[in-house]
Structure prediction request, 486 residues.
Amino acid sequence: MNFPNDVKYTKTHEWVRFEDETTARIGITDYAQDQLGDLVFVNLPAEGDQLVCGDAFADVESVKAVSDVNAPVSGTVDEVNEALLDAPEMMNEAPYDAWFVLVSGITDTDELMEAEEYEAYIETL
Amino acid sequence: MELKKTPLYEAHVRAGGKMVEFGGFLMPVQYGTGVIQEHMAVRTACGLFDVSHMGEVLVEGADAVRYLNYLLTNDYTVMEDGQARYSPMCNEKGGTVDDLIVYKVRDGHYFIVVNASNKDKDVSWMKAHVFGDVAVKDVSDEYGQIALQGPKAETILEKLTEKESIPEKNYTARFDRKVGGISCIVSRTGYTGSDGFELYTAAADTEKMWQLLLDAGAEEGLIPCGLGARDTLRLEACMPLYGHELTDAISPLTAGLGIFVKMEKEDFIGKKAMEEAGEPAMCRVGLKTIGRGIIREHQDVYADGVKIGQTTSGTHCPYVGYPAAMAIIDRAYRKTGTRLEVDVRGRRVEAEVVKMPFYKK
Prediction:
């Protein structure tokens, strides 16, 4: 299991990679993709949509089931990774490159965890 | 209720199987390779499934044929030794108690394979309808069952047994055979839509047989497969799954299984209700997902904004490469090419009625 240090984590298994203090890309963690299995579909928000920390903003589907992806922070969607729509397997193959959205004006970052903290949390599951 | 384990439980855990509850058993839903690779292995090479959770029932006695013909919707009058024949088993209302496979061992001796989740219900039902010289015996705990499925299945099996032990025709079986020195029944059947075999062994021999087959098939690309792939494979092949396309309330006629319901038979349980009901208003169709999204089970199907039915199963089909579903809908909309909409968690996704199965070998 991979826990890179350049992203922050949530208990619901999303990652956040900050590009500056209030702008970041968001995706799902290695643990998440491993639990979900082969991913075959993703439903993404639109540019301009508002993310509310803790609320579902996207969903991913494996062959077995659908799962919500929660917003790890609040902010505005600036860009959507359209490439993911055609290649959902990217989320399995390279989860930390397979970003969903680029978000700006970020707030509500208090609950984010560092890699070590997240790894320790995973071990309790 | 305590979950049961098949004779292969330890082998699954050692092999990294992700274990889940199914039909009262702890079963592997997938291994490390994942559902898609397992699915593709079965379509292009070979996959090995533990299906020991399935129930086995013996029906024996001088009146066995008369009994089966009354108990089941299919006709068992003319059958060779070693032949296998699928049938729904219906209740008095024409709904489905279970679907099963009957093997004729010899005159007066039949071996029946039923769904794990229905086994106890089935055995009670069968016993409750016994007449004449018929004995019904649940032998599920005595047997393990392994399914070897895929185009390479025969090549792999040939390494472990002589040609005479391999049934040539689909839906036939050879009894009292040896595969790798282990006694078993070799049946050319399966639940994947690909060629393959199901081997019935003594419970105690199952793990040895599993390992023998895995080793023998290594060079052909044989991998262990879980229930996840079993479900995507059967769905791609449009095979019904009890609890989805068939239930206590769904008649086999509605589920499109009319060829297994012999209305010309003198009598069988459910016949009267089916005759009285006439042609069912609803029928099973295959849906190819046109819009973006994956249609799942129990989602409402619409035509021109009006609800016309519900999906029974749905997922992404790895080999044909598109998401597909089966649904039971108003038969007026069953024509191939009809565009429908499905409510996928509040979003309408377009789908087209297509010919079943989605995959045919």
